[in-house]
């Protein structure tokens, strides 16, 4: 499955969910129990597939060593060493945790704020997103781990959110590095502006060499004329 096919599936799922929202009357109270039932079945389907996938990876127990750069470390030479089995299980765990948090958000939006559209969107997207993950495509559909399926996979929104929850805001490594870079840029710009101002003021104080030479030659000519007189 190439990138174009994957994106086409995602667009089709989004289009289907929005069409469902458009034609399904969410204002009728009688429709809500059916919507809740279908959403719960979708959640059960997701966690059933994810649990089965977890067991498949665990039973396979691929101990091939996987080594890749640690992008969160300040040391550019730092690397993470693990196995394919542990790496895949970690990805599945993160996906289930993220989906559980999303379900919690959808539930709060539905019960306390009366927002029902999120249930429909997530009802379609959670299962389709799981089926399109690299770990599902490798272990469930038998795709080869080459190309875009070669480990390590690109970090997704899930890992970014879960990693940010480990640190308080003031000690979050990515934020700290970003702020440090901004400070360095500000200092560099300030130093450049100071050097430019000093250069301009010095330029005003000192006459241009050509003007100095012409003034000197004029003075010599005037003195020679006086001597002749």
UniProtKB/TrEMBL annotation:
Pfam families: Pho88 (PF10032). GO terms for cellular component: endoplasmic reticulum; mitochondrion. Residues 196-229 are annotated as: Disordered. Residues 197-215 have a biased composition (Basic and acidic residues). This is Uncharacterized protein. The keyword Protein biosynthesis does not apply. GO terms for biological process: protein targeting to ER. Keywords: Membrane, Transmembrane, Transmembrane helix. InterPro entries: SND3_fun. The chain crosses the membrane at residues 96-113.
């Amino acid at each position: 499955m190439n990138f174009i096919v994957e994106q086409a599936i995602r667009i089709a799922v989004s289009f289907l969910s929005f069409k469902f929202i458009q034609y399904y009357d969410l204002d009728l109270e009688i429709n809500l129990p059916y919507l809740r039932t279908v959403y719960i079945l979708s959640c059960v389907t997701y966690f059933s597939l994810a649990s089965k996938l977890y067991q498949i990876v665990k039973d396979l127990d691929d101990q091939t060593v996987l080594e890749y750069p640690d992008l969160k470390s300040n040391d550019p030479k730092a690397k993470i060493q693990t196995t394919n089995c542990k790496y895949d299980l970690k990805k599945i765990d993160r996906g289930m945790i993220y989906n559980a948090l999303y379900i919690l958000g959808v539930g709060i939006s539905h019960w306390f704020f009366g927002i029902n559209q999120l249930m429909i969107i997530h009802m379609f997207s959670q299962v389709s997103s799981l089926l399109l993950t690299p770990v599902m495509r490798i272990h469930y559909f038998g795709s080869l781990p080459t190309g875009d399926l070669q480990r390590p996979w690109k970090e997704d929104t899930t890992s970014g959110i879960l990693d940010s929850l480990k640190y308080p805001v003031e000690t979050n490594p990515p934020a700290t590095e970003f702020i440090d870079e901004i400070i360095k840029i500000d200092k560099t710009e300030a130093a450049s502006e100071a050097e430019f101002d000093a250069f301009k003021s010095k330029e005003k104080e000192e006459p241009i060499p050509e003007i100095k030479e012409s003034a000197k030659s004029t003075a010599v000519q005037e003195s020679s004329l006086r001597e002749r007189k």
